[in-house]
Amino acid sequence: MPAGLAVEAVHCYSLLHDDLPAMDDDDLRRGQPTVHVAFDEATAILAGDALLTHAFALLADETCHPDPTVRIRLVAELAAGSGVGGMVGGQMRDIEGEKGGFSNGDIEVMQAMKTGALIRASVRMGAILGGADPRALSAMTAYAQAAGRAFQLADDILDVTATSEAMGKATGKDAGKGKQTLVAQMGLEAARRELDTIVNDAVMALRTFGPRADGLRATARYFASRNS
């Protein structure tokens, strides 16, 4: 539970900062006014900073796991997924892409960092807590990478097809900004076919686990079928 809370704290911090005027400048999140709208920008920045800091305090506490070696591994995983080589670096690449455009492959790299890295960290942290051996951890990592790609591609599709009411946030912003996405590159129908392929990759990565991994398989399928 503390490890899960730490991931959610990082996730929520990222949303608070992502919604700021200097970033995506969104007024709505989960059907509610974003924090900088409901309060002010300084509060949103500081609330995000507090959540990010608290995440690592949760992982460092003995209630997370009695073995300090495990706790350090969890800290390292979350830092890798959320820092310059992960979510933050991916956000920077996204900003650079909006200004200068993306070359071939850049969109996939950006999305793997911005969205996929935190999903990857989440899955690997669970595997570490479960005592996974190197082979199992490798399979879980392959699953997580495919699941992260599926989540982001589904999000890009929903930005084109879903209403703001269903999503609880503004939609159609990617096209409005001239933002390059996989949907914009390959078209909606091709993107949907690609999404099916990626979900199948995620499911196949779990083949050695049998029924024990049914929850993870359902999660990957949910990423693709969600409507909000």
TrEMBL record:
Keywords: Isoprene biosynthesis, Magnesium, Metal-binding, Transferase. It comes from the Bacteria. Pfam families: polyprenyl_synt. InterPro entries: Isoprenoid_synthase_dom_sf, Polyprenyl_synt, Polyprenyl_synt_CS. Its cofactor is Mg(2+). PROSITE patterns: POLYPRENYL_SYNTHASE_1 (PS00723). The keyword Oxidoreductase does not apply. Belongs to the FPP/GGPP synthase family. This is Farnesyl diphosphate synthase. It comes from Devosia nitrariae.
